[in-house]
Design goal:
It is built from 5 helices and 9 strands; from the N terminus they run E-E-E-H-H-E-H-E-H-E-E-E-E-H. The chain is α+β, with helices and mostly antiparallel strands and 151 residues long.
């Protein structure tokens, strides 16, 4: 699926770090920043989430919700949240169905080996549930400031 700006955002219901079901529909009326990241507690992902953490109050002021999605499970998310004091929800997409629906699943390469995995992507969903912006191949270091500049 090729998600485009203006499309209805694909609905989802995933478990959060506490095993609770979280659905996109539960956030109608708010802007939702859905960020897809490869793996908990890895260097690039840690930089990205810690920048979101440090800017969290600014997102709240803009009535925006942050939802992080990776293939990691609940326990991994709990440890990641605890270790870095993350104030937002992380969701488990272990079968990567939501990742694929949002176009964040693709071929990657490490040390010359090609494999399929999560490509760091952020989708901004407006208050009506439509795709407002898509950021592909996100650079973790500057991404939070980039997002805040356009919200």
């Amino acid at each position: 699926m090729n998600l485009k700006v203006g499309d209805k955002a694909p609905g989802f219901s995933l478990r959060d770090q506490n095993g609770n079901s979280v659905s996109l529909d539960g956030y109608l009326g708010k802007k939702v920043i859905v960020f897809f990241y490869p793996k908990d507690d890895t260097p690039g992902c840690t930089v990205e989430v810690c920048n979101f953490r440090d800017d969290f109050e600014l997102y709240e002021e803009k009535n925006a919700v942050l939802l992080g999605i990776s293939k990691d499970g609940e326990e991994s998310h709990k440890k990641f949240i605890s270790k870095f004091n993350l104030p937002f929800t992380l969701l488990c997409d272990e079968d990567h169905a939501v990742v694929e629906a949002y176009g964040a699943w693709g071929e990657k390469s490490m040390y010359g080996r090609k494999y399929m995995g999560i490509v760091r992507t952020t989708v901004v969903v407006d208050a009506e549930g439509n795709v407002e912006q898509i950021y592909e191949k996100v650079k973790p270091k500057d991404h939070s400031k980039e997002l805040l500049g356009v919200l």
